[in-house]
Here is the input.
Amino acid sequence: DGGITQSPKYLFRKEGQNVTLSCEQNLNHDAMYWYRQDPGQGLRLIYYSQIVNDFQKGDIAEGYSVSREKKESFPLTVTSAQKNPTAFYLCASSIGTGVPGELFFGEGSRLTVL
Amino acid sequence: GQSLEQPSEVTAVEGAIVQINCTYQTSGFYGLSWYQQHDGGAPTFLSYNALDGLEETGRFSSFLSRSDSYGYLLLQELQMKDSASYFCAPPFNKFYFGSGTKLNVKP
Here is the structure.
């Protein structure tokens, strides 16, 4: 079945460590997104990518990095520079950013910094 | 820039009707979408209004008035499973989300 797969579902990290969250889609979508959600809050955009080998910063990109080497994959690295990384991270995709469309979400990755 | 405003929380009883409002300011406009998110889960798409008026999908309806920069989601015959957060979002470009409305359905 087509969809978006995020892994791991739960992740614990020690302070000072970088961690990478995986996001894979088989929907053949051009655009992919990473959002952060804190308890009781909305979704804030970290990075988005419209095509392979291109990505743009969202509203809260500091302390995060991404790559888009393949259409299907858009991994997010939470670096040690991110001061408060404990949050729920959601990856999404859409057909494209140039046309109105629907976002399809993965099940999320919950990161906890110990 | 973009801004979206929704009430933070709404409470209603089972079987009732509830309306969740959304006012927005966006640079460029391509309609308004609504998403539902249960606690701990991923948001799922509910509806999309490209033009003014009411769109109905089962118990859920969504309304848009572009001249008023206003939309709402209407949920009828509320069920306990409708307890969730609801987000309005312009379905274009960055897919910017507001803070959402938490709906509590009580017996």
